[in-house]
């Protein structure tokens, strides 16, 4: 929406629309106002900087988490490809041996242990 800004409530995490002029006035005087969920908020230049830095930290954490998950997915894809290639050439996907009866081999060598 033109002429609007979307401040962020640090208590509930919601963004809500506010006229830019009202936001600028609140930022200058530092008066308390309330988010739509009733949380008391104060906008001052220092709090805006704190919120900006908190948002930067949160984005950095999310980017790090995404890169970890991407590496994990790549690793899983490599294992899956290795097992598929072994199966395609007739080898056991677990140990790489080429038994005559694959099902029997997997059940005996790699299946669940019965006690």
From the structure above, extract its key features.
3 helices; two-stranded antiparallel sheet; two-stranded antiparallel ribbon; rod-shaped; about 120 residues; single chain; mainly alpha
Describe this structure in words.
The protein has one domain (4-110). Strand 3 and strand 4 (40-42) form a beta hairpin. With 115 residues, it is mostly helical. The model has no long low-confidence stretch (mean pLDDT 85). It has helices at 20-29, 45-88, 102-110, and strands at residues 4-5, 18-19, 32-34, 40-42. The strands form 2 sheets. The protein has a two-stranded antiparallel sheet with strand order 1-2. A two-stranded antiparallel ribbon has the order 3-4.
Write the layout of secondary structure elements.
Blueprint: E1 4-5, E2 18-19, H1 20-29, E3 32-34, E4 40-42, H2 45-88, H3 102-110
Oligomeric state of this protein: single chain
Global morphology: rod-shaped
Low-confidence stretches: none
Contiguous helical run count = 3
Count of discrete structural domains: 1
- Strand residue percentage: 5-15%
Quick check: average pLDDT?
A: 85
Structural class: mainly alpha
Strand order in the largest sheet: 1-2
Q: What is the CA–CA distance across the termini?
A: 68 Å
Biggest pleated sheet? 2 strands, antiparallel
User: Level of helix content?
Assistant: 40-55%
Rg over C-alpha atoms, rounded to the nearest angstrom: 29 Å
SSE pattern: EEHEEHH
Number of strands: 4
